[in-house]
Amino acid sequence: MEAFLVHNMAPIMFGALVVFLLLGYPVAFALAANGLVFALLGIELGLFPPDFLQALPERVYGIMTNDTLLAIPFFTFMGLILERSGMAEDLLDTIGQLFGPLRGGLAYAVVFVGALLAATTGVVAASVISMGLISLPIMLRYGYDRRLAAGVIAASGTLAQIIPPSLVLIVMADQLGRSVGDMYEGAFVPGLVLSGLYALWILLVTLLDPRAAPALPPEAITFREADGRTGVRSLLALLVASVAVAVLAYHELVGSVRQGAAILAATAGIGFAFAVVLVASWLRLPILSRLARQVVLVLIPPLALIFLVLGTIFLGVATPTEGGAMGAVGALILALLKRRLTLDLLKQAMDSTAKLSSFVIFILVGARVFSLTFYGVDGHEWVEELLVNLPGGQVGFLVVVNVLIFLLAFFLDFFELAFIVIPLLGPPAEKLGIDLVWFGVMLGVNMQTSFMHPPFGFALFYLRSVAPKEPYVDKITGRLMEPVTTGQIYWGAVPFVAIQCIMVALVILFPQMVMHYKATGTGIDPATIKQLDIPALELLPPLDLGPPAPK
Questions:
Q1: DSSP β-ladder status, 472-473 and 480-481
Q2: Cα atoms in the Cβ-side hemisphere of radius 13 Å centred on 507
Q3: Among the listed residues 166, 180, 183, the one whose alpha carbon sits nearest the alpha carbon of residue 118
Q4: DSSP count for the chain of H helices, then E strands
Q5: Which of 53, 10, 142, 146 is nearest to 484 (CA)?
Q6: Is 97 helix (H, G, I), strand (E, B) or coil?
Q7: pLDDT tier at 201 (50, 70, 90 boundaries)?
Q8: What count of other Cβ atoms lies within 10 Å of the Cβ of residue 154?
Q9: Residue, of 429 and 53, whose pLDDT is higher
Q10: 3-class SS at 225?
Q11: Which residues, 6+ apart, have CB-to-CB distance to 7 below 8 Å?
């Protein structure tokens, strides 16, 4: 028995952790207790050097001095303030009016706003709850299929986990030892592509079943001109001008700065065009319709915040921690301008931020205790040997890892996956020659499914908390509306989980979606460097110290 324990300590330790978690023990305490118990057992068996435990205080102190992790409370605080500032309500109301005349228009609006909120808040709970409270009653009022409505809201809210400034990417960068800025830039395009896939699914549903997502009736469109026109032509003219400015900005910058920075500069170009129009409106120059003016008003704040946070990070002006701090200040200013900033709001936001940050730190401390013991019993070598020697090389490794993460996501959330599993997968991936930023973004897309997996997906829980559980009377139509069942929420999530799996495959098949973060070099063509002639150095003669002293 003793020989069996010695030779199989690592897999037994990992299996015991799974049992602890399945029994429902808090993750942080399960990790720490598991690490300490097996450390004592390893010392008794002569397998674990007792000196390893002396490194534990230093590892805990290293967590507290990690500047990268400081970005988590900043971005969390920013997201919570924005959730209560009314920005989500303004966006959903206006964009819903914009897309409403289209079949499936409200669903498209939810995806668009979900992506925009993801790029500003970075918090899944804020996005899902906001859209569930605002958009779900409207979608139900006008006859949307309940499964489609629930699925698109939950899925669009999870975009906050892959579109920067995502908390997942901060943790992933820390665990893989890579730059948060590189991880953000690598995830930018996959996040946008995933949003496009969601919209494509909505289009497919509306083509196959038009009754599942009907267009808004004319009387529901409130942003109209005095003569009854919707003002869409005026808005299209504004968008064409804005896109032209954006394309010009991108074309001028893409060769000299990172691609992500060029994209953000293009976003700033759109914001500048909108700002010009806004000033013209304040001067009472009738150049835009009412709808166009409203779109400008609601889009300028998030676009400004996106450039303030992501633009400064991608341009190299600020670190992610500094960008998060600026984002938090920007969110406070927006809330102040909307007259929503109160002491009660600040107290709630700081309380929630402290709880989430403490949750993350405790899990990380427990993970450090577990990993110290796991490495001490050579568990990393066992994992590396197991994964590196899989048949199929890189392809086999990626298939097994993605299936493993997908299955674990049924029971663990992304923090637990990031702190327990990712540190074990990084070294084998690097040994196989896999770029760790690309690997982290791919796993980030996969781990996003942990929010959507029935029955334990957190996004589904958030939506369940705000979706109607009992029959209710609609405030506008006066009709008695049926509730949204838990089964409808779960079945609505299934197609979007499949889409996320497709996105994982696309990241594997088209790695350049992520690898463009490496596109920027020093800007110097090595072929233009001429031979450098270094003059020979004239050496001084050795010092004459005289004869050695007598002994």
A1: antiparallel
A2: 32
A3: 166
A4: 25, 2
A5: 146
A6: helix
A7: very high
A8: 32
A9: 429
A10: coil
A11: none
Peptide bond into 11 cis (omega under 30): no
SS3 177: coil
Instruction: Please state whether 184 falls in left (phi above 0), alpha (psi between -120 and 50) or beta.
Output: alpha
| Mean pLDDT, all residues of the chain | 79
Which tokens go with 450?
């942990």
Q: In the beta sheet, which residues pair with residue 480?
A: 473
DSSP for 360-380, written as a single string = HHHHHHHHHHHHHHHHHTTHH
Residue given tokens 């995502």 in the structure block: 166
Contacts of 256 (CB under 8 A, 6+ apart): 523
Q: Where are the domains of the chain?
A: 1-222+339-521, 224-318
| Residue where the block lists tokens 């993801």 | 118
Contacts of 188 (CB under 8 A, 6+ apart): 163, 164, 260, 263
Q: Which two tokens stand for residue 520?
A: 């920027």
Q: Which residues 6+ apart lie within 8 Å of 199 measured at CB?
A: 108, 111
Residue 206: name the closest of 252, 148, 251 by CA.
Answer: 148
Per-residue burial over 358-394, b if 16 or more Cβ lie within 10 Å, else e, is: eebbbbbbbbbbbbbbbbbbebbebbbeebeebeeee
379-388 helix and 393-408 helix, angle to the nearest 10 degrees:
120
Q: For the chain, give the number of residues.
A: 551
Helix residue ranges, H only, 307-433: 312-314, 320-337, 343-376, 379-388, 393-408, 414-420, 422-431
pLDDT in tens, 339-385: 888 888 889 889 988 888 888 888 888 888 888 888 888 777 777 77
**Two tokens at 372?**
């110290």
Answer with the residue of higher pLDDT: 8 or 184. 184
- Choose among 215, 213, 269: nearest CA to 241: 269
Q: Distance between CA atoms of 541 and 538, rounded to whole angstroms?
A: 9
